[in-house]
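Structure, all two chains, one model.
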Amino acid sequence: EAGGKVENTPSPIYDLSQYYRQYLFPQNECELHNFWLRFSQLKWNRWIIAPRKYNPRYCKGECPRVVRHRYGSPVHTVVQNIIYEKLDSSVPRPSCIPAEYRPLSVLKMEPDRSIVYKEYDNMIATKCTCR
Amino acid sequence: TSRSRDERGSWQLPLSEVEASQSPPTLLAHQDAENGYGLQLSLFKELPSHSHQKLRDRISRPQPDSTALRYMKRLYRMFATKGGIPKPSKSHLYNTVRLVTPHAECEHLSKNQERGDLHSVDLLFNLDYVTTLEHLFKSVLLYSFDRPVSKSLAITCTCNLLIREHVASSQVCPNISHAVTFNLHVELGRKWVEIDVTTFLQPLIASGKKSIHIAVNFTCLKNDETPSYNMARLSPSLLLFLNDTSQQAHHQWNFLKHKRMKPALFKQKKSLNEEARKNLKQGKRAPRHRR
């Protein structure tokens, strides 16, 4: 404005890293998070001997518009995203969920007091996707 | 219950206070002299018929043995990382290992043996929790010493295994017998001895039997140099290496096979954002990618 007041202009960014964070790398994006779970918290330590705790991890965050390249999402996810944005906002946006897992070895005690070592599949999330 | 023996080597089974107050019925069978076996004492711990579940559990269902627990914990450390991830192994064709302690025991003590030590034990193993989807890969009788071997041993033993139950598939031969002769060499400091009985138990477990009654008979040659350490006096556990084919179990061999066939899928190509972010943290410029 003529009075020298500046309005409706974005805050100047002098730091390149800030620029990247704000425009190229949005906050709260879909990614893996740690959560160390102790079996004693669930009272499962009565039959699970080992491990005493483990990190199953979980996926949390917002799914961006561009999901194919970064998250390996199927084409259907892109289509659903477009429907949400352009046509019908009641159609849910893609969710941030695990895409790949790792196994976990467990040592536990059966009711007859025999001891068993077993490898369970899909116990630890290793990668997130938007779907 | 704990077992003790007197200095002469005969066995006694002291009862705990609980068992003494409510002692389960025992069977004392005396063999006829005509059979040539002399006097044998057969002690068989029977399960009480009344509904004292805790007592039944204590007697019939052995508490987790500390030695067995120690063995399985050691096995766990061998097979898994500190984070609990199964270690990759090309020879790892099983994803389940079960250690079963005897459900009941029947000891046969023979006296007046001129050569070696003869010791026969009837063992009953409960396999209720072995599912039909768990296929046997290997089975082992596991003997553990209550203390590490103080001196290296090299002895020759003959182990006879006999299944006591009637096998429906074989009307002619109701019992299955298996003899194993081996030279036992126990190194200094060892705590366990494993005897492979896979071929012996394979048909039984494959048929889905929920309990196995085995008579184990040991004969070891003894000389002046051999200490009085007698493995036959120890009660073995049954170790089963199984391949669980259910969906919840991890099939490492399929995982390794798939990884070899399609390596590109598992080499996660870092995205531009991740790589650039990493460079930012390190104070580097974002990389330029060639067309």
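Chain B touches chain A at residues 61-64, 68-69, 72-73, 75-76, 79-80, 83-86, 95-101, 103, 126, 128-129, 244, 247-252, 268, 271, 273, 276-277, 280, 286 (CB under 8 Å).
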